[in-house]
């Protein structure tokens, strides 16, 4: 096959909030097995793009394809069933539940057990063990019984990733996974991302340029809702327009 | 870190090592605890200790069942509701109306009342659960008000403001007639409360119940892990409505009367206050909140017949300010302190 379907593709994606065009005709391809970074200044529309792709927001126009199939009309949960996983820029976790149960919820949902009314959740031993194994892999096992809201922020960022990995996604969207984490602690997060399965298509939004250049083999720059340029890390680093809109403005972050 | 594929990571590890503590804790959570016997022992003791108050006891059980059903949707489901009387009243009225028309077998009447309430839950839930916050609150309220108004106007069917007349209830299982002392009513309501509690308990600890808690904790994340949030909520709403309908039907059967107050706003409001006092989303909040509310209401009404509701309000404020999680929340915190 000369033209394998992209793991994720958008065509002419548009979204406005009132008069504000936050996503402008975005044509984007994420290849299977990709390590792709989406960068751009604050307010460029990166998070909005993720929300459009997952179905958390409805596009004003355009098409979204997962594995070549049009999913634009599908609800969030149906896109997840097709392998789409995500994390949130701002922790969006089950704060009053334990770390282990946070992951159990996503694994239970992924395995189609979550609608069960009669058997106790705790009797699904395989779900519990799978969740625990995942926590061990993310070095979260020591915190398994602690409530998420009692964890330090950096650990909560790891739980964000753990909950998404519980879905065994084929396309994973990470929205600033290391945002707000002291660099001493972000090492674990980078390790985890680097050890993701090779066939997983990864899109990562990140502000830390060292991290981006370390993780990404391809970079897309978003500016004011539109794709400014896309290329290899070397091409992006050398691009003068990128320097202007983005790298030059880094001071604040 | 190694390059193990994700599938291998999520697969269960070999079974020869002991279960990690965290896993064992979750695997054991649903098992019965000794303290769970307390309400039932108290109820059984009450039968022998207070033979003159069995009618009142039956009404307390009905109120607890109503509160328990409400907790499922309010405490666990996180749906803000001030209209639970819609389901209670539907159960009561349909049970009463069917009985007045000649079908008098009490157990099937309960099922009929529950089915009617479930139907109201399904239809109203379709609209109510598409909204959130204040809109949702107002919609739940409006559903109850509309049903109340309908019951008020349809005098030929419901008896309107005079209440429904002419109910006849056969003996339970053809043997136990409802007696003047309330012995039958007490045991009947206690058994049905127990069955209702068992159902709620099973649901709360089921994967479905856990997803309800998940939705309450973070709806956005539930969407992101592929949960059909609306369907889950609607299911919970219908189950809650059905159980409220059981409580309503029991009221109709034990008093042989259905009046407009079955659908009243006071009933919807009181059940929420009872749960806040006892502790929301805690399975036993209803068992504590209902008796405490009833005792307070009785005391305050004696001390200050005009403004007793004001004092209930003050008490509620104190709970919300100083004892979040209600009485049960206080007990939980005390238990944690003792253990430390
Ligand atoms: N729900 C919303 N309503 C109105 N404006 C929004 C909403 N969400 C995002 N925006 C606006 O869209 C722009 C892009 O936001 P966002 O996608 O979060 O940017 P980024 O993630 O790149 O920092 C910002 O100007 C933001 O204020
Ligand atoms: Mg963002």
What would you say this structure looks like, in words?
The complex is a heterodimer of chains A (253) and B (340). With 253 residues, chain A is α/β, with parallel strands linked by helices. In chain A, 33% of the residues lie in helices and 23% in strands. Chain A is built from nine helices and ten strands. Chain A has helices at residues 46-54, 76-81, 99-110, 125-137, 153-165, 183-194, 209-215, 233-238, 240-245; strands at residues 8-17, 20-30, 35-39, 61-66, 69-70, 84-86, 171-175, 201-205, 218-223, 226-231. Chain A has a six-stranded mixed beta sheet with strand order 6-7-8-3-9-10, with helices on both faces. A four-stranded antiparallel beta sheet of chain A has the order 2-1-4-5, covered by helices on one side. In chain A, a hairpin with a 2-residue loop joins β9 and β10 (226-231). Chain B is mostly helical. Chain B has a domain at 33-264. In chain B, α4 (54-76) packs antiparallel against α12 and α14 packs across α15 (308-322). Chain B starts with 5 loop residues before the first helix and ends with a helix. The model of chain B has no long low-confidence stretch (mean pLDDT 88). At the A-B interface, α2, α3, α4, α5 and α6 of A face α1, α2, α9, α10 and α11 of B. Bound molecules: adenosine-5'-diphosphate and magnesium ion.
């Amino acid at each position: 096959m000369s033209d394998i379907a992209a793991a994720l593709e958008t065509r002419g994606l548009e979204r406005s909030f009132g008069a504000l065009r936050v996503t402008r005709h975005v044509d984007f391809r994420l290849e299977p097995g990709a390590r792709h970074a989406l960068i751009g200044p604050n307010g460029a529309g990166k998070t909005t793009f993720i929300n459009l792709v997952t179905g958390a927001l409805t596009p004003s126009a355009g098409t979204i394809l997962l594995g070549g199939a049009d999913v634009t009309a599908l609800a969030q949960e149906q896109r997840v069933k097709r392998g789409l996983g995500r994390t949130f820029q701002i922790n969006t976790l089950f704060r009053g539940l334990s770390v282990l149960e946070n992951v159990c919820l996503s694994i239970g949902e992924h395995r189609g057990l979550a609608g069960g009314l009669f058997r106790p959740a705790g009797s699904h031993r395989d779900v519990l063990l799978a969740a625990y194994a995942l926590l061990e892999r993310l070095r979260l096992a020591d915190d398994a019984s602690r409530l998420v809201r009692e964890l330090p922020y950096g650990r909560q960022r790891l739980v964000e990733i753990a909950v998404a990995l519980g879905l065994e996604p084929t396309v994973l969207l990470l929205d600033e996974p290391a945002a707000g984490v002291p660099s001493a602690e972000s090492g674990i997060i980078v390790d985890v991302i680097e050890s993701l399965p090779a066939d997983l298509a990864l899109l990562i939004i990140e502000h830390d340029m060292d991290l981006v250049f370390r993780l990404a083999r391809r970079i897309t720059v978003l500016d004011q809702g539109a794709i400014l340029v896309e290329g290899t890390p070397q091409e992006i680093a050398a691009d003068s327009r990128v320097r202007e809109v983005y790298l030059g403005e880094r001071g604040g972050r | 870190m190694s390059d193990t594929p994700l599938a291998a990571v999520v697969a269960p590890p070999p079974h020869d090592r002991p279960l990690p503590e965290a896993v064992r804790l979750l695997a054991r959570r649903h098992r019965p605890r000794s303290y769970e016997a307390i309400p039932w022992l108290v109820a059984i003791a009450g039968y022998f200790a207070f033979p003159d108050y069995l009618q009142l006891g039956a009404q307390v059980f009905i109120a607890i069942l109503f509160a328990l059903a409400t907790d499922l949707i309010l405490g666990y489901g996180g749906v803000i509701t001030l209209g639970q009387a819609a389901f209670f009243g539907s159960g009561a009225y349909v049970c009463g109306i069917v009985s007045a028309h000649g079908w008098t077998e009490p157990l099937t009447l309960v099922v009929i009342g529950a089915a009617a309430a479930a139907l109201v839950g399904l239809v109203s839930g379709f609209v109510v659960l598409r909204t959130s916050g204040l809109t949702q609150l107002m919609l739940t309220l409006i559903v109850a008000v509309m049903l109340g108004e309908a019951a008020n106007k349809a005098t030929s069917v419901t008896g309107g403001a005079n209440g429904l007349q002419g109910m006849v209830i056969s003996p339970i299982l053809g043997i136990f007639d409802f007696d003047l002392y309330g012995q039958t009513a007490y045991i009947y309501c206690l058994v049905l409360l127990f069955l209702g509690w068992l159902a709620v308990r099973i649901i709360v600890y089921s994967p479905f119940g856990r997803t309800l808690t998940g939705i309450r904790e973070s709806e956005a994340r539930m969407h992101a892990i592929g949960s059909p949030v609306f369907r889950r909520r609607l299911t919970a709403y219908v189950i809650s409505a059905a159980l409220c309908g059981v409580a309503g039907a029991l009221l109709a059967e034990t008093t042989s009367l259905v009046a407009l107050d079955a659908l009243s706003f006071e009933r919807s409001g009181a059940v929420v206050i009872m749960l806040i006092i006892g502790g929301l989303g805690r399975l036993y909040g209803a068992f504590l909140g209902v008796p405490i509310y009833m005792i307070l209401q009785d005391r305050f009404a004696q001390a200050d017949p005009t403004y007793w509701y004001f004092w209930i309000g003050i008490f509620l404020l104190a709970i919300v300010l100083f004892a979040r999680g209600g009485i049960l929340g206080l007990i939980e915190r005390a238990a944690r302190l003792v253990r430390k």
